[in-house]
Every structure is written in structure tokens, then in C-alpha cells.
């Protein structure tokens, strides 16, 4: 799967849940939203190999 | 994961978010309903304003203030926007932020007042003012924002200024102020600062909403917001404190809400009467000031810039 985080793109080969993907990328679920194939998903949802994923960070400096 | 609200009504819909601090999973439509209802409830509970009031929303072009403006419009409040162009050209930060604020103003058909600090400081933006005065950019930005949001609100006859401060902003600031026992700042950290001589009422209707909830609202309502962080605020301590809180929240959901609202309920009433500074109008601009020489912080800063430019 292709995972876009900000300006970076990562590639993962195995199917996993959103929460596990966040853990792999060292991102906090409280401040990130996962978009799978253009739709917002909850962290318990599985992401398959051919899915396109974007993670959007909510934290700002204020 | 399924939407709990839909389930309670005998329907089945896929959730887009799980909110551990409310033990609630919601689908797109239920989240939008819930989000706007929460804001409306905060406004009423804290007596921020009514539908008769004229409200000025201070917008930065970021997700929080734009989500607030859009939600207030949908809730039926009379809101206009106010944007301060900080003159930050790095990565086109100010230009992009302005475009996002303008875009929303056109979408909801509400006016956007614009203050350009380059008009005030003879072509200087925040980076140039920082270089000249050696004052931290965030401190200059805060001074200018506080002054001009108040001035524009009073000059144009608004009943209050609404800002997009969210729960994460508030708990991070509260923790910072508590760790240094900054009683003066703590005694001013309230979701409503009532109007007083020369000051417009200031309210924070998003104090109960997390950054993630505001971001999701923007995504679902297709609100185009500025994604770039301010290039001058890199490495600010607020982000670190927000991450610390998220770690605590993961172990103990609801900590942010408890920390903030129990402070407001139990501690703030003890602190707020401590300092009521004497206010008098600034002898140069007429805005209120607490200083004994009757020159407000912004006029003092303007003088400093003028003197340094001459030299």
C-alpha cells in the first residue's frame, strides 16, 4: 500500500489495521486522521495492499 | 466500526471516527450534527453570545478558525470574519492563509475584514520586525493580533470576538502556565473574557473540541484550509505539550476535558478576582492600557520600530 504523510510517501507490503499503520509511522491516533481511497476511516479498519492511504496531522503550533 | 447514534435509531452506518473521551463512534452525518450541537451547547452554557449579537470571528486561514466560522454560520449566528495579514512570505504562508479565509468568506457570503501589518509598519512584516527588534516572532504576532482584533471589533461595532482556540490549545497553555505557577496568566485563561472599558468580549466556542474533531469537520464539510504551519513557529513548545497530553489521553481518555473544565469550575473562580488591573486609555491611540505612563504595548512597540528604523 502507498501511504502519504505530508510531503513523504511510504510503501508497505502487508495488510494491517489503521492503528498498526499509525504505530509503524510513530503517529498518535489522537492527532491523525486516516483517509483510505478518498474516505475517512476509523483506526480499527483494515488497509489492504492495493489501497491508497493519506494520513493528515491535526496538531498545530497555535 | 459502526455509528452508535445510527445503531440507537435502528440503522447501520460505518463510523468515520471513534471518540474515546466520549466513548462514541459516529458516521459522517452524525458527526457533523454532533459537532455543531456541541459548539452550540458550549455557547449557550457559557453564555458566550446570542443570535441577536454581532460576532466577529478572528480567522487565520487554518482549520480551527475556519471550522468555527462555518459552524457558527450553520448554527444561525450573525458572523463576519477578520483576517490579519502578517506579511510572512516564506513558503507563501500569508498569501495562502489569506486565500483560504477569503474563499470561505465567499462561500458563506459573509464579509471578511482585512488588516495588513505592512500598511501599519511601513512595509515590514513579522520577519522584518523580528529582525529589527529582536523580539520573538510569536510575541510580536500575539501583540498585533490582540490589539487589532480588539480595535476592529470596537471600531465596527461588534458585540464580541470569537477565536478558534481548541481544547488541545487550551490544555497545552494551561499545563505550561501551571508548571510555572503563572497565576497572572492562569487568572486570564477563561473561555469567556467579558467586555470591559475599551475591551470587546472575547470568546472561545471551540474549547470543548479537539484539533482532530475540527480537522475532521473541515474534511467532511470540504472547508479548504491552510495546511502549512507558520514557518516562524517551528519547534514551539506547544506542540510538545500537545503530544504529551495525547499520550496521557491514550491511557486515560477524557483527561484533557477534565483538566480544562475542572480548572474552570474549581480553580478559575479562586484566581480571577486576584488581579483586576486599573485600565486607562492609551494617550496615543485611545486603546486601554494598564501601564502607568499610559502608552499601550502596541504604541510602545511602534515607537521602538520607528526609532530602530531611523538608526
UniProtKB/TrEMBL annotation, chain A:
Gene3D superfamilies given in the database record: 3.10.20.30
Pfam families (UniProt xref): ThiS
Top-rank taxon, per record: Bacteria
Name this polypeptide is given: MoaD/ThiS family protein
Organism placement in taxonomy: Bacteria, Candidatus Aerophobota
Automatic annotation (TrEMBL), chain B:
Binding site for ATP: 58-60, 64, 84, 164, 169
Domain (tRNA(Ile)-lysidine/2-thiocytidine synthase N-terminal) ranges: 54-227
InterPro entries in the record: Rossmann-like_a/b/a_fold, TilS/TtcA_N, tRNA_thiolation_TtcA_Ctu1, TtuA-like_LIM_N
Binding site for Zn(2+) 1: 3, 6, 27, 30
Recorded GO CC terms: cytosolic tRNA wobble base thiouridylase complex
Keywords tagged on the record: ATP-binding, Hydrolase, Metal-binding, Nucleotide-binding, Transferase, Zinc
Organism: Aerophobetes bacterium
Family matches, as Gene3D superfamilies: HUPs
Protein name (record): Adenine nucleotide alpha hydrolase family protein
Isomerase among keywords: no
Domain annotation 2-thiouridine synthetase TtuA-like N-terminal LIM: ranges: 2-32
Residues holding Zn(2+) 2: 282, 285, 296, 299
Swiss-Prot/TrEMBL GO biological process terms: tRNA wobble position uridine thiolation
One GO MF term attached to the UniProt entry: transferase activity
Amino acid at each position: 500500500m502507498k501511504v502519504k504523510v505530508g510531503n513523504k510517501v511510504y510503501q508497505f507490503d502487508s495488510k494491517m489495521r489503521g492503528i498498526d499503520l499509525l504505530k509503524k509511522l510513530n503517529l498518535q491516533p489522537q492527532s491523525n486522521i486516516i483517509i483510505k481511497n478518498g474516505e475517512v476511516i476509523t483506526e480499527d479498519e483494515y488497509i489492504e495492499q492495493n489501497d491508497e492511504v493519506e494520513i493528515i496531522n491535526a496538531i498545530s503550533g497555535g | 466500526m459502526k455509528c452508535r447514534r445510527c445503531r440507537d435509531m435502528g440503522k447501520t452506518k460505518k463510523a468515520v471516527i471513534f471518540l474515546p473521551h466520549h466513548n462514541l463512534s459516529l458516521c459522517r452525518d452524525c458527526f457533523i450534527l454532533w459537532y455543531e450541537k456541541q459548539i452550540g451547547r458550549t455557547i449557550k452554557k457559557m453564555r458566550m453570545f446570542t443570535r441577536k449579537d454581532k460576532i466577529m470571528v478572528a480567522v487565520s486561514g487554518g482549520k480551527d478558525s475556519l471550522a468555527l466560522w462555518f459552524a457558527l454560520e450553520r448554527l444561525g449566528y450573525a458572523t463576519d470574519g477578520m483576517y490579519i495579514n502578517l506579511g510572512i512570505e516564506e513558503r507563501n504562508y500569508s498569501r495562502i492563509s489569506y486565500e483560504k479565509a477569503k474563499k470561505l468568506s465567499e462561500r458563506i457570503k459573509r464579509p471578511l475584514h482585512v488588516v495588513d501589518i505592512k500598511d501599519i509598519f511601513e512595509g515590514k512584516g513579522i520577519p522584518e520586525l523580528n529582525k529589527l527588534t529582536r523580539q520573538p516572532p510569536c510575541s510580536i504576532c500575539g501583540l498585533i493580533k490582540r490589539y487589532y482584533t480588539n480595535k476592529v471589533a470596537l471600531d465596527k461595532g461588534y458585540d464580541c470576538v470569537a477565536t478558534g482556540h481548541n481544547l488541545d490549545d487550551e490544555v497545552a497553555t494551561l499545563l505550561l502556565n501551571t508548571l510555572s505557577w503563572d497565576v497572572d496568566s492562569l487568572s486570564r485563561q477563561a473561555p469567556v473574557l467579558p467586555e470591559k472599558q475599551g475591551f470587546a468580549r472575547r470568546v472561545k466556542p471551540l474549547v470543548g473540541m479537539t484539533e482532530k474533531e475540527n480537522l475532521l469537520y473541515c474534511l467532511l464539510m470540504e472547508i479548504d484550509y491552510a495546511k502549512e504551519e507558520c514557518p516562524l513557529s517551528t519547534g514551539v513548545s506547544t506542540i510538545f505539550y500537545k503530544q504529551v497530553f495525547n499520550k496521557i489521553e491514550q491511557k486515560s481518555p477524557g483527561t484533557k476535558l477534565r483538566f480544562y473544565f475542572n480548572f474552570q469550575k474549581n480553580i478559575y473562580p479562586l484566581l480571577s478576582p486576584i488581579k483586576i488591573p486599573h485600565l486607562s486609555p492609551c494617550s496615543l491611540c485611545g486603546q486601554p492600557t494598564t501601564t502607568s505612563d499610559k502608552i499601550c504595548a502596541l504604541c510602545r512597540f511602534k515607537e521602538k520600530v520607528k526609532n530602530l528604523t531611523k538608526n
